[in-house]
Structure prediction request, 325 residues.
Amino acid sequence: MLTDNFQRQFSYLRLSITELCNFRCLYCLPEGCAKPEQQPLSVDEIRNLVRGFAEMGVSKVRLTGGEPTLRKDLISIIQAVASVPGIEAVALTTNGHKILPLLPFLKAAGLTAINFSVDSLQPNQFEAITGKSSAADVLKAVESALVQNFESVKINVVLLKGLNSEELPAYLELVRNKRLSIRFIELMQTSDNREFFAERHLPADLVGKQILAQGWQQVTPGTRLNMGPATVFSHPEFVGTVGLITPYSQNFCASCNRLRVSARGALRLCLFGEGEYSLRPFLQSAQQLPELQLAVTNLLGAKQQSHRLLEGHYGSTQNLASIGG
Ligand code: SAM
Ligand code: SF4
Prediction:
């Protein structure tokens, strides 16, 4: 198992498969995405990468972006990842805009889990935040994913003061009768969104206090193997769960179990770290896996104990679309 200097073990790989996106979320790509300078990793490069990581103990891969459904070969990518020995879960994070007709094919290819980003349940507000008028289509896709029995279906909501902060009751209603999880994510500062962050950041603890007052109870203290970093809450009258992702809280990094690789094949040790390390030269054939593994093991030695967000350092990440969140 990949282990760093702080005894954290890494079983979870977040792999961005494109830098392109069809949305313009206010906190991420308000001007839309620029044309990438390099091609993203090919299916063969992705297969080699995942094989290398799986042999080192990674068992869960999340495909993200940019918007992963913009890859025309998404189904082949999922097939390639799901068929690597040792990979038990293949997840996707998506804005859901184009996914509805793809769902049966993604499931057949081996996709086990989907996180949909839905930052407002009100169509007008959804459009104001994302630049697209597709709230109803995305919610239809969420329903369809539940009907098609994906192992896990979640909705990600980035908390935005004054834009969606009044919608907690409506989100909770969504999980009353459905096997659905809502994840409230605290807005994170990047170098591109400083002013927006200053205006709209809302601590996720505020949601925690509200739901505790309504009888929700914490069910996980933090990360378990392959789980996300969310603190999860359940309620006897609700089928689904609520999770809070609070990167600004103390000890958030103590349970870190994930590594990130960009669409260009660069390893990122932390979302808020400096620098990245290209693994692409080691992905050109299966014979290079020992070199890849040696490089990753050595690089892991440089992983810091914690991000420094509370000191105002948010690293070199311009926006989360560049690395997949
Ligand atoms: N395009 C896909 C989507 O939006 O689901 C996948 C990529 S997106 C970068 C992954 C997740 O990161 C989304 O849930 C998005 O809302 C979240 N995200 C992006 N920028 C963020 C920020 N500055 N703070 C918190 N979450 C952010
Ligand atoms: Fe695109 Fe996702 Fe960023 Fe929104 S959050 S702009 S959908 S990459």
